[in-house]
Amino acid sequence: MQEAPNDAMVRRYFASALGRAERREEAVAEYEEALRLDPNNMGAWVALGIAAYEIGDLKRSVEAYRKAIELDDSRPIAHNNLAYVLYDQDEVDEAVSEWEQAIELLPTSDVDRQGRADCWAGLAIGYLTQGKRQEAIETYRRAVSINPHYIDTKWMAREAFWSAKAIEAAEQLIPKVKVKPAPRSADELPTV
């Protein structure tokens, strides 16, 4: 950092490296410094939201995602991530609204399969918490059809970074979603 202390992009990459090294509080500080240098960097605001969430600073996480959305409301990731934080804070109606916004934006975005499935799965747990059980099941089924890993809560905790609260809700839906797991190898494919 000594060579480019005023370069926002360098600070953002450094913050990312700190986060991967599980030095999350330092990562938050570096993202904040990067944003001081370049306050209009939507991606850095999203990254700060993730890092703040990882250290349990949900208020800062929400602020960061809201700022990212203010800068560019056409990106599903900020809406989706904000929704999960709101869900964890029991602000379910607002979370559902953010998930619905994220899903509206999916057709015009470059979000990968996991991101798409994550939006649908999040909306499903939001619906479940609102008491809309049948809508929740159908929505969760859609998530699993996009990415079958969403029937595996251990994977969700490890790879999708779901909170215990979100996983608990998903566990109520998974038995209702009748989807066969994807084959792991060619040997598991059905024969004709």
UniProtKB/TrEMBL annotation:
GO terms for molecular function: glycosyltransferase activity. SUPFAM superfamilies: TPR-like. GO terms for biological process: protein O-linked glycosylation. PROSITE patterns: TPR, TPR_REGION. It holds the Pfam family TPR_16. InterPro entries: TPR-like_helical_dom_sf, TPR_rpt. This is Uncharacterized protein. It comes from marine sediment metagenome.
